[in-house]
Amino acid sequence: MSERVPDAEHARRTELTRQHAGRGIAAIVVALFLFASMDVLIKLLQAEGFSVLQIFFFRSFFALVPIAAVIRAEGGVAALKTRRLPGHFGRTLLTMGFLLCFFWALSMLPLASVYSISFASPLLITALSVPLLGERVGPRRWGAVLVGFAGILLILRPGGDAFSLGGFVALASTLFYAFGMILVRQLSRTESNAAIVFWFSIFASVLAALGLPWFWSTPAEWTHWALLVAVGILGGTGQVFITEAYRRADAAVVSPFQYTSLLWGLVFGWLVFGEVPGGGVLAGGAIVIASGLYILHRETRRGGAAGRGMAGGQ
């Protein structure tokens, strides 16, 4: 009898772990669907003549509505206390660079192409963690980084659709994202998730509002207002689900599902915009994904956190 009790307890804990993993996976899949839906709306708004900065303002300001749920879950206003406002402001500038470039790239490239290039973020985070965080990267992970960048070159090959201003803007957005996530790693040592997402939304909204007089276009129809607000709601809700995913399950469990965003990019790009990416984009994307997954595998074995670098979302 005494032997069955530990077995029963082990079985109960195993079942709880499976349930948490399942919920974490479900949360990240929902988050990626929401982000892809947001990107579709952004492309539609850009086609109507709305500027990247105006869309960014609505993305940041109305994201505060769902983010309020995260603040409440993490202890309310008390979770927002911080002694590192300069760090939050620096993170805001980097993430603004990421999102503004990402949104701009969406106006020039198919969704799948932008997503494929964005998958270079774990590779860049691994490379930057050496000089900026003092982490050690072994030869196997360096090899995966080099292979991943070869995949990026395949996507950006001369003569390809992505070898254009849009392709290099998308690559710039990924570089901004990598630097931003390095800073998030540093902030997360002392700051709550609620504080990190809240202060970003506040600072980003204020900075974007300062430039709005030069980039504002008054929506002519109520549907335009609805789409602009929806961009913020979808983005903020996606951030909530990303946070929930990484709270429910380990990064090693949920991070690989980040790459399902390519599926949404292919589906939405084809159904909404009639976009069909070339073979180079798909092949290069597959190489970058494989490299990212290998780096995640190595980080998991050594107890690292490269996979968590992908948790920032949009």
Molecular structure report:
With 314 residues, the chain is mainly α. The protein has one domain (4-310). The chain is built from 13 helices and no strands. It has helices at 4-47, 52-61, 64-73, 85-106, 111-118, 121-133, 139-155, 165-187, 193-215, 222-248, 251-254, 261-273, 279-302. Helix 2 runs antiparallel to helix 9 (193-215), helix 3 runs parallel beside helix 10 and helix 5 packs across helix 8. The chain is globular. It starts with a helix and ends in a 12-residue tail after the last helix. The relative contact order is 0.21. The model is unreliable at 305-312 (pLDDT under 50).
Helix share of residues? over 70%
| Class derived from helix and strand content | mainly alpha
The low-pLDDT segments are 305-312
Shape: globular
Number of distinct helices: 13
Oligomeric state of the chains present here:
single chain
- What's the mean pLDDT score? 83
Separation, N- and C-terminal Cα atoms? 52 Å
What string, H for helix and E for strand, traces the elements in order?
Answer: HHHHHHHHHHHHH
Search tags:
mainly alpha; globular
Secondary structure elements and pairings:
Blueprint: H1 4-47, H2 52-61, H3 64-73, H4 85-106, H5 111-118, H6 121-133, H7 139-155, H8 165-187, H9 193-215, H10 222-248, H11 251-254, H12 261-273, H13 279-302
Helix pairs in contact: 1-10, 1-12, 2-9, 2-10, 3-9, 3-10, 4-8, 4-9, 5-8, 5-12, 5-13, 6-7, 6-8, 6-13, 7-13
